[in-house]
## 1
Amino acid sequence: MSYSELKGLYHLRETIGSGGFAKVKLAYHSLTGEKVAIKIMDKRSLGEDLPRVKTEIAAMQDLCHQHICKLYQVIETADRFYMVLEYCPEGELFDYIVAKDKLEEEEAKIFFRQIVAAVGYIHNKGYAHRDLKPENLLLDEDQNLKLIDFGLCAKPRGGMENVLYTCCGSPAYAAPELISGREYLGAEADIWSMGILLYALLCGYLPFDDENIPQLYKKIQSGKYETPWWLSQDSKELISAMLQLDPKRRVTINQLVTHPWLMEAIDMPVEWNSKYKRKVDDDCITELAVHYGKSRQEMEADVQEWKFDYLTATYFLLLEKKMKGRPVRLIQQQQKSS
Ligand SMILES: CN(C)C[C@H]1CC[C@H](N2C(=O)NCc3cnc4ccc(-c5cc(Cl)c(O)c(Cl)c5)cc4c32)CC1
């Protein structure tokens, strides 16, 4: 495969994973040397999944948060889509839980606060994720969680019905109202999935499980699940508030952020605001302006078009370097040999 569209922009390395109809490769962004993950999708093999790609790209261009995997650049050719994404070296939260059997309350609490922050942010922006599960939460180099796979998300502005069926996401995490095919609110279904997620973090297995899907659905709709002896009273109460069969009785994201179990020992409500500023970073603009031989005003105007082209990627990756305390410098191209 040539991937000629990436030549000079990214140095492509090995395939690091696959996400359904996509291949994910490690790559280096040539101007900053930073690692990225490039999700490559072949249009021919996408078939009816093509709308999912457009949904994911549109959502991720609108989302900018410390616990959401950052989209840096989108390249569309006749045959392919490339999504240049934030690299998460520590892989899936799913594998992390399996490796540790289950997590201690303190660690689960730190992770779950990050999940509540990410979901609170997207709900606030009018999105429901609808496929929340440990496989879609990746760990970065600092063990921070990054939410991925927005292919099933929706902006519930009448868009919900027509994706009611395709968005069962993963049955074990699906809310009772969603599997019964009734009308549902994405935000309420996400809260249910977060209840399943918290149970999985603290127990190491799922509250409702069965190889036989109809059997699994019966268990979900019964709303009955075991609570092992090691769960604290507060964690049991929180899980129960999220796994309410009646979506109207379910805790809301606004109530979650100050829930006793989430506040315990941390004493601060969950903050879902993005750490990213609306205003562009002056150091990054300066470095870019020097590199491209433009004035700072021109450079700032170009960056603020947010085209999700190579300039958008370079800006965000420079900002990443700054946030990690690394020099805000671009790799100067070798002088062209005369
Ligand atoms: C549900 N699972 C199967 C899905 C797998 C997909 C591959 C993942 N992955 C690795 O396999 N190795 C390491 C690795 C490192 N950085 C990544 C950054 C972004 C994405 C990413 C982001 C978005 Cl938004 C998205 O939609 C998709 Cl599909 C992938 C994947 C990364 C990754 C792990 C989860």
## 2
Amino acid sequence: MKKVQHYINGQFIDSVSNEFFDNYNPATNELISKVALGREDEVNAAVQAAKNALTGEWGQMKLNDRIAMMYEIANEIDRRFDDFLEAEALDTGKPYSIARHIDIPRGAANFKVFADTMKAVADEAYQANTPDGKKMFNYSVRKPKGVIAVISPWNLPLLLMTWKVGPAMACGNSVVVKPSQVTPTTTSLLGEVMSKVGVPAGAYNVVQGKGSITGNLLTAHKDIDAITFTGETVTGEMIMKACSVGVRDVSLELGGKNPAIVFADCDMQKAVFETTRSCFSNSGQVCLGTERVYVQREIFDEFVAKLKESASKLKLGIQHDESSDMGPLVSATHRDKVLEYYKKAEAEGANVVLGGGVPKMSGNMKDGYWVEPTIWTGLPETATVVKEEVFGPCCHVSVFDTEEEVIKMANDTKYGLASTIFTENLTKAHRVASQIDSGIVWINSWFLRDLRTPFGGMKGSGIGREGGHHSLEFYTELKNVCIKM
Ligand SMILES: O=C(O)C(=O)/C=C/C=C/O
């Protein structure tokens, strides 16, 4: 049976306690590996290794050499593309067709973009007169923050882990990664990449385990200088509390209840295509995904019919079947949670336009964690599935009449991560975009990413922006030096 180990101080090791937990293929519920369960010994060893690295070869590495190493890591990820593809698909259940175009390419891209950033970033400097008629010169310098804890989620494991490890290491920090217990493997593969490239031991560490055990130990560890987390808002709040001890910085990309606003003057084909993607890609397990769709009355019936037709064409299938459009949910626990929401929607009076249950899967998929792509209409804005993040392949479609009304409805949420707007009137698009309370707005598109842009949520969707030079705000300490001339 395959083992997924910790990667600490450049070595793959089991837990001192020799404890393992089971990891399953979500598409078939087959046991695929035994994963080391990290406790105090492993967390302490990883943090110590990360701390030592800062004063050793890694911390003393020249910026140009570190930048070159970032590109080498990216190239090695590309060289091992198929290994990452197979591992990620097996852990998450997602089709190769998604992981091949989204998850794995971003593994390399997330190192390259921050190597580019470190090459191009300028330091601030000012000249000014002093009260005694002389001059002063001020300049700022950035230093790594230190040991960064990276707590990464299970929906886009490699993408979201490297979205944090890339900038953290490019800025000279060392990292301790705690991946989700249901998607451990690509963090371990990245350890193989680090060893192959010759990254100094301790710069990149992985402690496998469970959030309630390993994650809590890591976030509470006094030698962690900052924590970056992507995941549910309730966990984000707990991590933020842990960061208050020792006044440590935190970067949070949390949940969302993202609206799509479809005006009557939209390009219908584009609106249906992009909304199908944003609702059902990755089985709806994308924090940027759409779960609330608002359609202007004139085109409501047509849009709902076309969205239903588009979603009903999605093929649910096994990872390596190239014709699969959608996989299962990531775990039996998450599947049960989503099905509870499906039941709740019906109990609250939803009109089930499509899905609402469990699909009949054949062969070895019959025991997988499958749910049907689902579309509801007819619920009030106060309904549970209109208010709470389901994180599954489902959406509720509501009708609206005026621009003012839909902006109010779209903003009536505790979240503020992403939104999409469909209209061919770009004056209107920019006007509405400026009034939507979300960190990211896509117009006539979804999940188009320029990695230099500020990325993150407001309100209950998180704190901070990552992307390009914005990431340096979190991954470095900024120091000002003043000279009297
Ligand atoms: O595209 C990104 O950089 C990113 O962070 C995606 C997040 C998706 C969350 O589910």
## 3
Amino acid sequence: MDASFASTLLPPTRIFKIIVIGDSNVGKTCLTFRFTGGSFPDKTEATIGVDFREKAVEIEGETIKVQVWDTAGQERFRKSMVEHYYRNVHAVVFVYDVTKMASFRNLQTWIEECNGHRVSASVPRVLVGNKCDLMDHIQVPSNMALKFADAHNMLLFETSAKDPRESQNVDSIFMSLACRLKAQKSLLYRDVEREDGRVRLTQATETKSNCPC
Ligand SMILES: Nc1nc2c(ncn2[C@@H]2O[C@H](COP(=O)(O)OP(=O)(O)OP(=O)(O)O)[C@@H](O)[C@H]2O)c(=O)[nH]1
Ligand SMILES: [Mg+2]
């Protein structure tokens, strides 16, 4: 069979767009770096606009491209980009710094911004408390964070981008979202179909996922 014909029969690799939001300095760049690159960056600078990081992951035999949008926390570096962050987003990761109460208090504002951009309630959201390696400086107690996460229907991950022992936990933030998105298969295939103009894809939409995540 000719390769170009075969490629029209195969569904294209799906891309899940996940945005990472939160105050400046909470560690969004380091978390996304840890997930996509497997390490902690020696040095970071404030993100300007957005940095894209991608990782191909395999879930139940399907290769999915997780496209992580590492957004800027500083208002002056993000204001022209905000519309782009939220457009066609598939999942949202809210990050705070466990050693900085203000970054936790500000989550309410980040959630309001997200809601204000018509992000549907079906778009999964998770909450991440970063910098747990700084054990002597913790200001946000776990039970307070858990209560907040519950109230907003989010899973809570407390972790550290810096501590290599936490790298699996960091992966599970993004993998749990990718698994949930895969389970919402029909919706996402329809999105892909519209963008590609390929008609066949709706055929494969009914399978229910048994994702282990
Ligand atoms: N101890 C510790 N420091 C961290 C951790 N994650 C990030 N940092 C440090 O926190 C600082 C800010 O990290 P970034 O990842 O650049 O923060 P950001 O949220 O991307 O900031 P903006 O791009 O300005 O929005 C850097 O000095 C990092 O080295 C962590 O898990 N533990
Ligand atoms: Mg950054």
## 4
Amino acid sequence: IDLSVSWLGLSMASPLFNASGVMCRHADELDRLAASCAGAVITKSCTLEPRAGNPEPRYAALPFGSINSMGLPNEGFRYYLDYARRYDYGRGKPLFVSVSGMSADETLTILGELARLDLPCLPEVNLSCPNVPGKPQTGYDFAASAALLDAIVRIYPKTFGVKLPPYFDPVHFDMMADVLRAYPTLGFVTCINSIGNALVVDVERELALIRPKDGLGGLGGSYVLPTALANVREFARRLPDRHVVGCGGVTSGAEAFMHILCGATVVQIGTCLYEEGPGAFERIAAELSALMRSKGYRTLDAFRGRLGTP
Ligand SMILES: O=C(O)c1[nH]c(=O)[nH]c(=O)c1Cl
């Protein structure tokens, strides 16, 4: 069974890696991911300046997933560019750098610096952070997304990707795909970010579970799997010459299989990684391999994007 993936000039031994935000804020965490069975590594979304993020409690594990309102805590982009400079690309694990400036200008400044370094890492531009009070998700504003992408391609000449929020209406899949299609250097779209602004209640204490935004936070884990799969399949259909990175609700080989069957080239793992640790990559890859064997598939290409309709 061959779980390898070759895409965007990269080669990965496993299609699985971390979702930005999980176990990737500090260099030691990133090194731990690089030493794990993950096929690649992505950094925590970075801003121009370091951020402490939102007041705690800001993360809670739930029966079927998680809620978070971290508020973009990160070490500032220079820290991650420095990590990207020192990273050992020769070990065959691509490095992605997630960028989420507090403004379009911040994002452009960060990408300009990244372009100047001309490193093998690829940017994933986060259009979908739901947790900075007062900061809307760019991905839900099609004009703002197009304006940002227009500016990005002028200062960042190489291949990049975007992290999208979940959409819930075919008209929105159409509109966002129309925006993204216009940028030939947009090599991948990562679907999905957490489902924003959910509210989880503690009945006994009659309190929201997290403090920021009076309890509103991004929902992750098994709760979001069906929405994630729909977004993967709909964008893969609309952007057949780009890659879709699946993200959302993967806790097992079967769920990784679902994302790839829906069209994902590779798959990110967030909540499950946060709760289980990096051993999740080995377990899920083994489960995926066993499932493929039981179905007679020897490679991921044998079933990628082949979901049918009854
Ligand atoms: O609160 C966060 O830091 C956060 N949390 C998320 O669930 N998605 C994001 O893109 C970000 Cl940036």
